[in-house]
Design brief:
About 0% of the residues lie in helices and about 50% in strands. By secondary structure, the chain is mainly β.
Length: about 120
């Protein structure tokens, strides 16, 4: 099983940017779905973005489309989430997750069992 470790969270003012990283140790193939989901206190998990390692196809939640970008450096085995134009409603714990599945959408990523410990993002107004 791939081990996932997130970093890059922090506090930022609205309109600012952060880049989250997820270091994946262990084998990842071209048949893996990797992505990010978030959970704010008292709210359900929300899939944010996914990327399928084989095709590179990406999906984004409507709430972040145009502001967030998911990418992957296969040489470093690292997943990224570039977050721009951050809003207070983006405040949440962000988790990196992965699974060997072709069902690779924002609807599935929050249900993956293999996830990191999370990194906190706080956006102040």
């Amino acid at each position: 099983q791939v081990q996932l470790v997130e970093s890059g969270g922090g506090s930022v003012q609205a309109g600012g940017s952060l880049r989250l990283s997820c270091a994946a140790s262990g084998y990842t193939s071209g048949r893996d779905c990797m992505g990010w989901f978030r959970q704010a206190p008292g709210k359900e998990r929300e899939g944010v973005a996914t990327i399928y390692t084989g095709s590179g196809v990406k999906y984004y939640a409507d709430s972040v489309k145009g502001r967030f970008t998911i990418s992957r450096d296969s040489a470093k085995n690292t997943l990224y989430l570039q977050m721009n134009s951050l809003k207070p409603e983006d405040t949440a714990m962000y988790y990196c997750a992965a699974a060997r599945t072709t069902y690779c959408t924002t609807a599935s990523v929050s249900h993956f069992d293999n996830r990191g410990q999370g990194t906190q993002v706080i956006v102040s107004s």
